[in-house]
Amino acid sequence: MSLEKLSSNKAFGGELTKYKFKSAALGGLDANFNLFLPANAAGGKVPVLFYLSGLTCTEDNGAQKGGFMGPAAQEGIALVFPDTSPRGAGVAGEDDDWDFGTGAGFYVNATNPKYARHYNMLTHVTLELPEVIQAAGLPIDFTRQSIFGHSMGGHGALTLYLSSVLSGTKQYRSASAFSPISNPTQCPWGQKAFGGYLQGGVEEAKDKYDATELIARTGGEPLHVLVDYGTGDNFYKQGQLLPENFLKAARDAGYDEVQVRVRSQEGYDHSYYFISTFGADHIHFHANFLKA
Amino acid sequence: MSLEKLSSNKAFGGELTKYKFKSAALGGLDANFNLFLPANAAGGKVPVLFYLSGLTCTEDNGAQKGGFMGPAAQEGIALVFPDTSPRGAGVAGEDDDWDFGTGAGFYVNATNPKYARHYNMLTHVTLELPEVIQAAGLPIDFTRQSIFGHSMGGHGALTLYLSSVLSGTKQYRSASAFSPISNPTQCPWGQKAFGGYLQGGVEEAKDKYDATELIARTGGEPLHVLVDYGTGDNFYKQGQLLPENFLKAARDAGYDEVQVRVRSQEGYDHSYYFISTFGADHIHFHANFLKA
């Protein structure tokens, strides 16, 4: 699992590096990710924030368009940008749709035998990437991790965070999301993805991969969650995101605005123009916990 | 020349809009540009900063990756992102190379008859875009314009600015550039472009389109110029940019570091990661003059 450096760009006093490695979690396929190290990483290990991207994206979208590196450099926080699915698994039909298969791994571990060898983005993000980064001797302190994401990646960030709270590993100190798919078992994108990747389909997903379902079960455990969505977002209007369901479940579970903050942003859409507008906010939110 | 709105995205409290219109300067072809209006434009006309992009780019690269809109929103400055060439002119060979023809207009008015009908990015940027924006009633104060750009667009920004000083129109209050092609008559990119677009070739360009030549002739007129380039930039290493020639000409002409500042940035390359690192700096530089 040794890392091959594909490219490197100096940015904001630090360095953005693209790596490739043979991913066991993804069935031995090559996997890419980007890592931003701020300048202070030269002096010792730094906290890390994972950014999970949305449907059709790669490890590049967030790095190029998110506007995250400037504030992360200020805060002295590293950023990891994983890809959004395995590439080239060769499963029949995986390239037919933009919202399923390649570019659309939904941050699950597939249990449907057709996908189970390769579509394991959950393990890839939560276990494998920390392992390979640590094994390479890169200056990241994995006792200080947080996670955020956009759309499908917002779903990933919220579910990986809440799952780590429920399981007691508490891998992430905080989670945030831009326009997350907040209740995927109730929307077409999620139903399609879970119906494909999971042997138990939507029912299996309710137990493991739905932020609205999960937050109903974390009661008592302290949470640090920030969500932004735009009222001009067509996917929001089409009922793919359902942030109100997540908000209601959070309040029903006793979480207040400090622990779970969901902000409706007037007129913003689903694009990286929206994300970059609030990117610095999210970085500073996570810094509160990563640097505590 | 009425404007058709192609898309619109809220960003940083303002609005980024992509427009299309039939461009007389470009021989009647459709031309796109992006316009960012900050929130304060709702209350009256705002100053404007033109961003000229580099080889192979369109009106989108700077808007998506430059990191300019956040600081421009803070300063209350509009941004115009033109395309880099006519599109679909149908001139034989215009799509053969990435550094000539489509995507590579070099911000000149072509005098070679083969290109003269369409390749007039100089007029497009300096006259036509202000005209159509003004005619559309958009809240821009064109008595307060500045200009910046990257690589080929840095060449454009410097030459359009210096030409407006030399001609006495003083259309722009300040100019800045990231890794500009600073002495194009002395580098392969410029020689190829001028040899193609201009009947008089490189000699014609020396008179009109070479920042290093032009600054030798502006002596006495006050200038406001900022240039950043990276020492890790492969095009710099290959001698395509030649910022030292521009700097020497500026100093020989009597300009000091306040009037013409050229900064060598250790380890940075030619990418938008470099640009976005110093984007806010450039916006604030121009704000000094646009808001004076």
From TrEMBL, chains A, B:
InterPro entries xref list: AB_hydrolase_fold, Esterase-like, S-formylglutathione_hydrol
Enzyme class: hydrolase
Compartments where found: Cytoplasm
Keywords of this entry: Cytoplasm, Hydrolase, Serine esterase
Residues the record marks as active site: S151 (charge relay system), D233 (charge relay system), H270 (charge relay system)
A single GO molecular function term of this UniProt record: S-formylglutathione hydrolase activity
Gene3D superfamilies: alpha/beta hydrolase
Family: Belongs to the esterase D family.
PANTHER family in UniProt: S-FORMYLGLUTATHIONE HYDROLASE (PTHR10061)
NCBIfam families: fghA_ester_D
Protein name: S-formylglutathione hydrolase
Organism: Postia placenta MAD-698-R-SB12
